DNA sequence: CTATTGACGGAGA
DNA sequence: TTCTCCGCCAATA
C-alpha cells in the first residue's frame, strides 16, 4: 500500500496526460505550493505509487531525474520528443486547465458575443 | 523540539 | 554566459 504523504503533488501529476510533461515548479504551483519546486521534487523522489506518472515530470530545462533510469524510454514510448538529453519542452509542456482560466474563457466568449 | 537534506527555480552578480 | 544564494516544506536523525 503506497504512502499517502505528498497527495496534493501526486494529484496534480496524475492529471498530466500521455505525451506531455510538466516541470517541478509547475506541479508545485498547481498543487498549491507556489515557489516550492523542490517540494515537488522531494515528493516525486519519495513516490512509490504506480498510479502516479512521475516520469512525466522534468526540471525547468527539460532535464530528467538523475536516478530514474527508465524515464526517457517511458516518455519516448508516449511520443515525447527530445532535443539532445532534454525534453523539447516548448513542444509538449503540459498546460493545466486552471479554474481561473475557465472563468477567463467564459468572459472572452461573452465579450465576443457582444462584439 | 532543532538541524539538515533534497528528482527545483528565479534573481542577481 | 555561468555561478551563487535563498525560498519552499515534508522527512529524517
Explain what this protein looks like in three dimensions.
- By secondary structure, the protein is mainly α.
- The protein has one domain (3-111): Winged helix-like DNA-binding domain superfamily/Winged helix DNA-binding domain (Arc Repressor Mutant, subunit A, Orthogonal Bundle), CATH 1.10.10.
- The chain is 43% helix and 7% strand.
- It contains six helices and four strands.
- Strands 1-2 form a two-stranded parallel ribbon. A two-stranded antiparallel sheet has the order 3-4.
- Helix 2 (24-30) crosses helix 3.
- It is globular, with a radius of gyration of 16 Å.
Concise overview:
The protein is mainly alpha-helical and 115 residues long. It contains six helices and four strands.
The CATH class designation is: Mainly Alpha
**CATH-derived architecture:** Orthogonal Bundle
Query: What order do the SSEs take from the amino end to the carboxyl end, as H and E?
Result: HEHHEHEEHH
Quote the beta fraction: 5-15%
In CATH, the topology is named Arc Repressor Mutant, subunit A
Over the alpha carbons, how many angstroms does the gyration radius reach? 16 Å
Count of folded domains: 1
Query: Please, how many helices?
Result: 6
Mean pLDDT: 84
Compute the separation of the termini in Å.
55 Å
Determine the fraction of residues in helical runs and give it as a percent range: 40-55%
Order of strands across the main sheet: 1-2
Low-confidence parts = none
Assign the structural class, choosing from mainly alpha, mainly beta, alpha/beta, alpha+beta, or little secondary structure.
Answer: mainly alpha
Shape: globular
Largest sheet: 2 strands, parallel
Please name the fourth-level CATH homologous superfamily. Winged helix-like DNA-binding domain superfamily/Winged helix DNA-binding domain
The total count of strands amounts to: 4
Amino acid at each position: 500500500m503506497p504512502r499517502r504523504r505528498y497527495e496534493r503533488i501526486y494529484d496534480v501529476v496524475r492529471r498530466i496526460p500521455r505525451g506531455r510533461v510538466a516541470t517541478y515548479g509547475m506541479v508545485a504551483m498547481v498543487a498549491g505550493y507556489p515557489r516550492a519546486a523542490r517540494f515537488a521534487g522531494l515528493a516525486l523522489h519519495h513516490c512509490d505509487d504506480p498510479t502516479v506518472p512521475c516520469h512525466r515530470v522534468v526540471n525547468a530545462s527539460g532535464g530528467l531525474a538523475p536516478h530514474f533510469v527508465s524515464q526517457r524510454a517511458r516518455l519516448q514510448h508516449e511520443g515525447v520528443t527530445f532535443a539532445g538529453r532534454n525534453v523539447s519542452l516548448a513542444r509538449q509542456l503540459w498546460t493545466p486547465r486552471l479554474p481561473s482560466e475557465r472563468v477567463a474563457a467564459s468572459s472572452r466568449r461573452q465579450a465576443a458575443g457582444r462584439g
